[in-house]
Specification:
By secondary structure, the protein is of the alpha/beta class. It contains 14 helices and twelve strands. The strands form three sheets. The chain has an eight-stranded parallel sheet with strand order 3-4-5-8-9-10-11-12. Helix 5 crosses helix 6. The longest helix has about 35 residues. It is globular, with a radius of gyration of 24 Å.
Length: about 375
């Protein structure tokens, strides 16, 4: 009887161990299959360094339009697939913000990148809000602490690589914001911080307290304001990376938009003077010029516009948006084209002769008032 009980106990233990091993094997297979679907990044994209500390692909991916700003949000599964395709093609820098959605873009980007979190750079932003439909900035320490914890949860990560002040808050001195960013770095919640659409003087003040790794502002061959207002020269002098958002001028430099183009309901560009039918018609001058440069090099207009930005300096990193896999591939091939200094000088001379019609933000609007501070 004792021998029988012993054998029965042994049989049960063996069955339990077998079931445990089978369960572990199944879990490992699922993990392996999941990872197998995500390839190693291509070495075809060159790298650039932001602020001397954050290495990124020379072209990043702006993710806003997947969830926000350009009509209805796109399908989550399709956008997840696109983000991972970008990684497969060599993109390691992905940009989002808590206000995109709000929140839904972070909820898309985080899970999409979770399987490859240690191989990518995630940038998100804080401090821009729209209570009751009116824009406001809040970079108080209390607000930042609340925002960072919420973003970390939505992004499903323990840290954010570049945490950017979305717009300057005139009620909170930039020195206080820099102090808070330094605390977050010490706590391990962020690796570095940045500013967006800040003026040159604010960038300098922030740098004296705790140097930002990047400044993210609008920049394209058809919007060159930051070359003249001191922002880009200040970034270069201080060793701060410049992240160029809207490098295709919100779609103008795709060659697909003219006076007959119709934006989807809810598209933010409906409120911007540069994208009225009259302005789009007038701005075909810059579109045609950039297209003519591309034709000489065998490049598309978008590739030409991105290649021109990359040629401006090696601390500049454009982050074009797209929700289309074909456009993603087209954009990334911009790294295959280059310009000589003579070519750049001639392009500059011709571009300065072209009058760009329409402000990027409606004059007097909250958006217009919140840039360059």
């Amino acid at each position: 009887m004792q021998r029988r009980a012993f054998l029965e106990r042994g049989l049960k233990a063996g069955l339990a161990l077998s079931m445990l091993n089978a369960s572990l094997a199944l879990a490992n297979d699922k993990k392996a299959n999941s990872q197998a679907r995500i390839k190693n990044p291509s070495k075809s994209l060159p790298k650039r360094i932001l602020g001397g500390k954050i290495e990124v692909s020379a072209l990043g991916l702006g993710c806003m339009g997947m969830s926000h700003g350009h009509g209805p949000a796109r399908d989550i599964k399709e956008m997840t697939k696109l983000i991972r395709q970008a990684y497969d093609l060599g993109v390691t820098f992905f940009d989002t913000a808590e206000i995109y959605g709000p929140h839904t873009n972070e909820e898309l980007v985080g899970p999409a990148l979770k399987p490859i979190r240690d191989k990518v750079v995630i940038g998100t932003k804080f401090g821009l809000y729209y209570p009751f439909g009116k824009q406001m900035q809040d970079s108080s320490k209390k607000s930042i602490i609340r925002a960072i914890d919420a973003s970390l949860k939505r992004l499903q990560t323990d840290y954010i690589d570049i945490y950017t002040q979305h717009r300057v808050d005139t009620d909170t001195p930039i020195e206080e914001v820099a102090d808070t960013m330094q605390e977050l770095v010490k706590q391990g919640k962020i690796r570095a911080w940045g500013l967006s659409e800040a003026g040159a003087k604010t960038i300098e003040r922030a740098h004296k307290v705790f140097a930002p790794a990047s400044v993210q502002s609008q920049y394209s061959i058809s919007f060159r304001e930051h070359e003249e207002d001191g922002v880009i020269p200040t970034c270069k002098r201080l060793g701060i990376g410049f992240v160029a958002y809207s490098p295709l001028d919100r779609g103008l430099l795709t060659g697909l938009m003219n006076e007959n183009y119709r934006f989807a309901a809810g598209d933010m560009r409906l409120a911007f003077p540069r994208y009225t039918p009259q302005a789009l018609k007038a701005n075909q001058a810059i579109v045609n010029f950039v297209a003519s440069i591309g034709k000489q090099k065998g490049a598309t207009i978008t590739q030409t516009a991105l290649a021109w930005l990359l040629a401006q300096d090696d601390f500049i990193v454009p982050i074009p948006e797209t929700t289309n896999p074909k456009h993603l591939i087209e954009n990334l091939k911009a790294v295959e084209f280059s310009f000589t200094q003579d070519e750049l000088a001639k392009i500059d001379e011709e571009v300065r002769k072209i009058v760009i019609v329409g402000e990027r933000f409606a004059p007097g609007s909250d958006a217009a008032k919140s840039v360059g501070l």
